[in-house]
Specification:
The complex is a heterodimer of chains A (128) and B (340).
Chain A: H1 7-22, H2 28-50, H3 53-65, H4 75-91, H5 98-119, H6 122-125
Helix pairs in contact in A: 1-2, 3-4, 3-5
Chain B: H1 3-17, E1 21-30, E2 36-46, E3 52-61, H2 73-85, E4 93-97, H3 100-103, E5 107-111, H4 119-124, H5 132-147, H6 166-180, H7 186-197, E6 206-208, E7 217-219, E8 224-227, E9 234-236, H8 238-246, H9 267-278, H10 284-310, H11 317-322, H12 326-338
Antiparallel strand pairs in B: 1-2, 2-3, 3-5, 4-5, 6-9, 7-8
Chain lengths: 128, 340
């Protein structure tokens, strides 16, 4: 159990205060710096809120495509290892066509879309 | 600027300009890139053929180290001279000093040009850069003049030479970097595989600017006053620069169809200016290939920038946030290669 409010809520509240009270009073380089800070806080907040569901799904999909056994390593280590194998498969042309192509494309679309939704969600709202 | 540095500069400029003496009355550190420092210096040149007002920019190596692939000041000076001689609108390069004894690091002096380069202003407001049709035509002409610089060139012999197709050369370079990085990037690998499979063969190689985009040229209310930031230039496929300029990641958020060229104007105006000088039609379909390349190249640079922060080499929120541009660049690569 973590004490309330948790980190994501703290970040959200702090960021709102920054945007409503501080940034309007700033100009020039300081304003630019404060906007960057607000952006960094938003990314961290979304990362905390999203938990690791997407990463677990990503690992499951990778294990299926690469026929990997479930590993005892940590989630992040397993993901790094599996994604390295995926990189090799792509580079060697084994995902150029057929069923593997479609599976890998779908996985990459899903994971990349998720990463965009953390780093810059507006990008997905306004496809140009 | 410190007194002793100012005096050293005055003596250096006076000697180079064949002047009696030089008086610097004003100097100011301009907001520069992460790689260099730029100082504005104003004053008087007394005597000699440069006699009159001194209104120049001193460009030095940054005291902290920069991006490994960028050129040093002596090389950048040679590039500027080559571009100036080819008729490209650049700040006129005046004098180079490689002797570190003068101000502690190498630098060169170039004539100051007026205007703004800020991408977000250019995209929003036509007062910066003037009429869009003319601006884009002019930019196309500038780029074609850069590409009129062809190998072999003894004055540019520091530029890397290679025999393979420029596109494959880039793909191999990016892969080597990714192999050295601690985090795998499968989506980028996907893009690189596509770029490898669709790579155009080696054609005529020309001097590519490699960062020719909105934000790196200066404008006043009438048009272009200077093409800046030559530190990544090298031999390559001319279409690389066209793709970089037009790629979605360099449009500063501009969305309209008639703003696809650098976020400021219409592709066809840009292409027309280019063709007017090069005398050859541009292959529109191949430009699209190089726009995918542009996203891959920018993603690699963004990963490198973030790495400078993560490794502790240079702690900076700006560099840290640059790492978070990578997902949207990768998403764009997927969209362009898979029609997602």
């Amino acid at each position: 159990m973590r004490d309330q409010p948790t980190g994501d809520l703290l970040l959200e509240t702090a960021r709102d205060l920054l945007r409503e009270e501080i940034i309007p009073a700033l100009s020039g380089n300081q304003r630019h710096a404060a906007l960057m800070i607000a952006n960094a806080m938003a990314i961290a907040m979304r990362q905390l809120q999203s938990g690791d569901d997407a990463e677990r799904q990503e690992l499951a999909a990778l294990q299926k495509i690469l026929s990997l056994p479930e590993s005892g390593a940590s989630l992040s280590q397993s993901l790094t290892d599996a994604n390295r194998q995926l990189c090799r498969l792509i580079r060697e042309g084994r995902a150029d066509a057929g069923k593997t192509h479609d599976e890998v494309r779908d996985l990459l679309l899903r994971t990349t879309r998720h990463r965009v939704s953390i780093s810059s969600p507006k990008y997905l709202d306004n496809p140009a | 600027m410190q007194e002793n540095l100012r005096q050293a500069l005055e003596i250096f400029i006076a000697r180079q300009a064949g002047a009696e003496r030089v008086e610097i009355s004003e100097s100011k550190l301009l907001t520069g890139g992460a790689v260099q420092e730029n100082w504005l210096v104003k004053g008087q040149i007394v005597g000699g053929k440069h006699a009159g007002a001194l209104d120049a920019v001193i460009r030095t190596d940054s005291p902290s180290c920069g991006v490994a692939v960028s050129h040093n000041r002596a090389e950048e000076f040679a590039l500027l001279k080559a571009a100036f001689a080819a008729g490209v609108t650049v700040p006129e390069p005046l004098w180079l000093c490689v002797d570190k004894a003068v101000i502690g690091r190498p630098f060169f002096v170039m004539r100051r040009v007026d205007g703004t380069a800020a991408g977000h202003l250019l995209v929003k407001d036509e007062r910066h850069g003037g009429n869009r049709v003319q601006l884009l035509e002019q930019l196309g002409m500038e780029l074609a003049r850069i590409h009129s610089i062809r190998p072999p060139r003894a004055d540019l012999d520091f530029l890397e030479w290679y025999e393979e197709a420029p596109a494959l050369h880039a793909v191999n370079r990016f892969r080597r970097y990714l192999d050295s990085h601690s985090i795998p990037h499968p989506t980028l690998e996907w893009g690189l595989r596509w770029l490898e499979r669709h790579a155009p063969p080696r054609g005529e190689v020309a001097l590519c600017h490699r960062d020719f985009r909105t934000g790196n040229y200066m404008v006043d209310d009438k048009g272009v006053t200077g093409i800046l930031d030559w530190e990544f230039a090298g031999w390559g496929d001319p279409l690389e620069d066209i793709g970089w300029f037009c790629a979605k990641c360099w449009r500063f958020g501009a969305k309209a169809k008639n703003r696809e060229a650098g976020g400021v104007g219409d592709r066809e105006d840009f292409y027309r200016g280019y063709e007017k000088i090069s005398g050859r039609p541009l292959d529109r379909d191949l430009v699209r290939y190089w726009e995918v390349m542009a996203h891959a190249a920018w993603a690699i640079i963004a990963i490198q920038q973030a790495e400078r922060h993560v490794s502790g080499e240079e702690k900076s929120l700006m560099l840290a946030l640059t790492g978070h541009i990578v997902p949207e660049l990768e998403y764009e690569i997927l969209t362009m290669t898979e029609g997602a």
